[in-house]
Design brief:
- The protein is an alpha/beta fold.
- It has helices at residues 17-30, 49-55, 71-84, 97-101, 103-118, and strands at residues 8-13, 37-43, 62-65, 89-92.
- The chain has a four-stranded parallel beta sheet, with helices on both faces.
- Strand 3, helix 3 and strand 4 form a beta-alpha-beta unit.
- The two termini are 25 Å apart.
């Protein structure tokens, strides 16, 4: 566990906050041997992203967009995040993934992306 540093706050943007909390909780548990990630909050609206990001201290290092948003909305959410918290790492779950393949597919997608997200390659 010596490679794990200070906790990284993660926020989600999901219209189903309880599902977001549950799925990100699974991800956090699955990668806890590599990363110290804390789910610090969720916005269920695009308008709520900026105030949420501004309210969390230390500022979030990661933002995940859920799959219910269109690609255009995901782009808008990620842009708001980058303008509000310079250097924040973002990832968008492919639109429709939750509906088409279920929650396990979302968790698997996030687990496949987390190394790139943590390294800032997204």
């Amino acid at each position: 566990m010596s490679s794990i540093s200070e906790p990284v706050n993660l926020v989600s943007v999901n219209t189903a906050p309880e599902r977001a909390k549950r799925l990100i909780g699974i991800l956090i548990n699955d990668v806890k041997d590599k990363y110290n990630i804390v789910h610090a909050g969720n916005s269920d609206t695009i308008e709520g992203v900026k105030p949420l990001l501004e309210s969390i201290q230390p500022p979030p290092g990661i933002l995940f967009c859920a799959s219910m948003w269109t690609p255009e909305q995901q782009q808008q959410i990620q842009q708001i995040a980058r303008e509000t918290v310079p250097g924040i790492r973002t990832a968008a779950i492919p639109t429709g993934l939750q509906v088409e393949r279920g929650p396990d597919a979302v968790v698997e997608f996030l687990k496949e992306k987390i190394d790139d997200v943590m390294a800032g390659r997204t």
